[in-house]
Amino acid sequence: MPANLTQQYYAAEEAYKKASTYEEKLAALEEMLATVPKHKGTEKIQAEIKKRLSRMRKESGQTQGSGSRQEDPFLIDAQGAGQVLLLGPPNSGKSSLVQTLTNAKTQVAEYPFATALPIPGMMKFEDVSIQLVDTPPYVPDGIPGNFISAIRNSHMLALVIDLTDPDCIDHLMAMLEFLREKRILREEVPPGVQALTLDKILVLGSKADIAQWEEMVEMIEELVPDCPTLVPVSAVTGCNLDRFRALAFERLQVIRVYTKRPGKPADMERPFILSANSTVSDLAHSIHKDLADSLRTAKVWGSAKFDGQAVNHDYVLADRDIVELND
Ligand SMILES: Nc1nc2c(ncn2[C@@H]2O[C@H](COP(=O)(O)OP(=O)(O)OP(=O)(O)O)[C@@H](O)[C@H]2O)c(=O)[nH]1
Ligand SMILES: [Mg+2]
């Protein structure tokens, strides 16, 4: 049977051949597996990719339970509504922003290279928390493999540039080029592949409290092709930090769902976070994997035509829906 491999598969195979690090090889193999057409004619190819993947994971110490994941300070498990990693050149203001927006104790300093390891913190937005990750500075050609993995694995990136730095446009363009070169930033992301599209990237123009930052914003918008959404911010005055919070939540594309028991008020304190377009069945599964099977009826307040409407298991939920599940 012919394999009928796609352009996307060939591109991933090419990336695999060119890869020079474990991290790049692993990412390319994962993409080969995700893009190989799934039918009888490709069974051998699929098995071969899986074999290589498992060998490569073993060699790079990424198998679950090996303990090395926990020991790598760059592998930070996402928490809350999603993980937004801050990436930017030395002294651009990453640690100041994470310190202002979260409870994390980051190292802020006048000198560059103050941050040596990533530090996570939780940023409040309405009734949810979004995880921010402060990172060591971005330097061209100086990013270790585990740092690249952390960038690839985050749900969103905030590229931090200092609006008072005359070279900030060059820094921004270099970071975008780096992300494209590493195939972390893509036009489209095939299912099962860890990569980001442009809407998952925000540019935080920092120090928007120092004279002439507006001119720099205009120049960036004029000179940077395909510039992701740019938000001028200040850790000193707090300018636009609320806008950043709201944009991060919107771009994470998640919904909040509150649950209730029959005859009881809903628990409005702790929403369940689901990806957009999740169904009643997905909600049940996220509460407990057995609940998805034992679920009988469900009622929805919010997006349903009327409050307390009985809905099917494949009903697509909306942000802030209240759901009653009966098993
Ligand atoms: N005026 C002003 N200064 C800021 C702002 N944010 C950061 N700074 C200053 O810029 C310098 C660098 O800030 P950091 O937050 O340490 O920068 P960083 O990007 O974490 O630096 P590295 O860890 O070296 O990569 C410090 O002196 C901060 O006080 C801001 O919004 N306004
Ligand atoms: Mg820092």
Task: Tell me about this structure.
The chain is an alpha/beta fold and 327 residues long. The longest helix has 17 residues, at 43-59. It has helices spanning 7-18, 22-35, 43-59, 68-71, 94-101, 145-153, 168-181, 213-223, 241-252, 280-287, 289-294; strands at residues 83-87, 119-125, 128-134, 156-162, 201-206, 229-232, 254-260, 272-275, 297-301, 309-311, 321-326. It folds into three domains: 7-68, Up-down Bundle (Methane Monooxygenase Hydroxylase, Chain G, domain 1), CATH 1.20.58; 72-252, P-loop containing nucleotide triphosphate hydrolases (Rossmann fold, 3-Layer(aba) Sandwich); 255-326, Roll (Ubiquitin-like (UB roll)), CATH 3.10.20. It is built from eleven helices and eleven strands. Mean pLDDT is 91; it is low at 64-69. The strands form two sheets. A six-stranded mixed β-sheet has the order 2-3-1-4-5-6, sandwiched between helices. It binds guanosine-5'-triphosphate and magnesium ion (MG). Guanosine-5'-triphosphate binds at residues 88, 90-96, 108-110, 112-115, 137, 206-207, 209-210, 234-236.
Adjacency order of strands in the biggest sheet: 2-3-1-4-5-6
Largest sheet: 6 strands, mixed
* Number of separate structural domains: 3
Shape: globular
> What percentage of the residues does DSSP assign to strands (E)?
15-25%
Give the strand tally: 11
Q: Quote the average pLDDT.
A: 91
Q: pLDDT under 50 segments (min length 5)?
A: 64-69
CATH architecture of the largest domain: 3-Layer(aba) Sandwich
Q: Helix tally?
A: 11
Q: Let me know the CATH homologous superfamily of the largest domain.
A: P-loop containing nucleotide triphosphate hydrolases
Ligands, ions, cofactors: guanosine-5'-triphosphate, magnesium ion
Structural class based on helices, strands and sheet pairing: alpha/beta
Order of helices and strands: HHHHEHEEHEHEHEHEEHHEEE
Task: Kindly provide the name of the CATH class of the largest domain.
Answer: Alpha Beta
Rg, rounded, reads: 22 Å
